[in-house]
Amino acid sequence: MTNTEPTIALPICIRAITKTYGDVYALDNIDLEVKSGEFLTLLGPSGSGKTTLLMVLAGFTRPDCGSLLFGDNEVIRMPPHKRDVGMVFQNYALFPHMTVAGNIGFPLKLRGRSKNEIAARVEGVLATVRLEGYGDREITQLSGGQKQRVALARAIVFEPRILLMDEPLSALDKKLREHMQIELRHLHEKLGMTTVYVTHDQREALTMSDRVAVIDHGKLIQLDEPRKIYDQPTNRFVANFIGESTLIPVEYIDGKPCYDGVPLKISNQNAADGNLLMLRPERLTLLDIGGSSDYNCFKGEVGDVVYQGESFVIYVTLTDGTEIAVRSVSQQKFLATTPERGGKITLGLHPDETVLISDQDGGNNCTSTYQKI
Amino acid sequence: MKTLDKLTKPVPGPRTAKIYKRWDGINSEELGQDELREKWALFGLSIPAIILVLTVIAIPVGWLFWLSLFNDEGVLSLSNYTRMLDSKSYSRIFVTTFKVSFFTTLLCVLIGYPLAYFLAQLPKRWAALGMMAVLFPFWTSLLVRTYAWLVVLQRKGLINQWGMELGWWDTPIKLVHNLNGTLIGMVHIMLPFLILPLYGSMKTIDFDYIKAAANLGANPVKAFWHVFFPLSLPGLFAGMIVVFVLCLGFFVTPAVLGGGNVIMVSMKIETLIDLFFNFGTASALGVVLFVLTLMVLFVAYKLLPPDKVLGQGHNV
Predict the structure, then answer these.
(1) Considering only CA atoms, which of B247, B252, B218 is closest in space to residue B147?
(2) Mutate to test the interface with A, among B208, B210, B215 (most CBs of A within 10 A)
């Protein structure tokens, strides 16, 4: 079957794309390159402009200015039906007046393929999304997960070299969503098309992507691999948006970052610049009073202790009044020694986990060169 | 009455039917009675409406049917119906009625669909204004609108005078007192009945479907025919059925604008009663029209089941 072979993917090059609605910048001078065959996620809160950017890629939104290349072709003025990109819509947009096979065969029918070829390809792609024998079903007879698969099948059946997905899993329940994340990832490995995926779910972005582009207020804030996005956010916004974190100010004494008068031990020199210290609950360790000399130590008083099943969270008020959280796996040995409310506690942060970030809130940190076109 | 607290709780154990059974006898009877009482109470509320419908619809229709079974001498017979089969003039009237209804519906679709489509694309504010324009004729009396058309269309009416003064044609065109006039008037009057349901159904079509079609490679024309048009069919059919059925029994407009050259069933009934005082034949005509209308609705119902036509959720 042809659709199981990897398709030739195309790189996408976004240059200086800007879109305004009145005074609001939905997209503010976005420069972004998606490598051929890459799984790139646009991540941002609602209203950040990530969906607008995807709609620009699909051709449904005309930007005020900018350039968009698929491979070597300038497509910014090309109407959507000529762009030949697959797209999975947030609400799936499956045609209710067609069967499953009718929906999936639709793009092939438009491309003038023969009936036999359409039937064979539809069968093949249904197998790919593991819905064999569902061709004759009505759309209304499908469950949410099945609709999701059909929408995906319809988007890949004509072997587009670029696949766009607009929060495709947001309507599914948690278990199914996590299952589909892995499945989509496998499918991407198998088909190999360049994929741009939009989500507001940071865990989903981290799970699935080769790279994540964090977008806020129409600006590209950070573009990096998932681990870097999480471990080394470039600014306050990313640190707050991805995962849980508390940012506490550090002071510089003799040019060295210090907390509570004590210099901070930082192993990664790339993370040693900035005036905010990022504390993530799961990166902190419970230390015995006194602590270990290897760790950066934080003393405080125990507040609420919350049992969450797989882990438990202790809220700690530091001596300077900041409330931070520390998370531990809920194994009996830890649970047995859970400190009492009001007790004194010392938290440790390993130098490997110690990350300073800049306190600026936005801005395009991704330097890029672009020529006026 | 038994109460729950008088009884001991059932023994804890596996949830089997047996254990549920211990609770069964306690109050299921009372709960069942409550349910029944509620149903009767709701039914009771609708009794006035039922009586009204019976007195103003069921009884007159039944009486009509009864009258149609007596001939001129007041003897029970089917002569009123057999006469309709024998006489060519009656079948011609039915053909005219269906012909006028068919063409009115067709013209309404041809004019109404693009108009509804246009309104459905407009921003809310402009669409509301457009809808006002569509509904505006509703606020004018049917008779006034019909006679206004007479003024416009007649031999020395607006159109003929302008056309001749501008030199477009030399002798007046027969625009009224024939099928032309009847159709013009009826299309004008029926148009809102088509546009309203059609517009409503177009408005429920999620624009994402059109986007999806474009994304899959459909140019705007193909996206319209493959996706938008099929999704608007429920509203279109609903409007067509309303228009067609209303046309079947229409009286004023064909009577005025047809000028006696277009005779529909309703007009024949009026003549029979007004001129000949022939209630039997008039009733029989009414019954036949009634049955034919039901048949049209039945065929429409069979071709397009209401659960497919109405209330079909387009949204996923």
Answers:
(1) B252
(2) B215
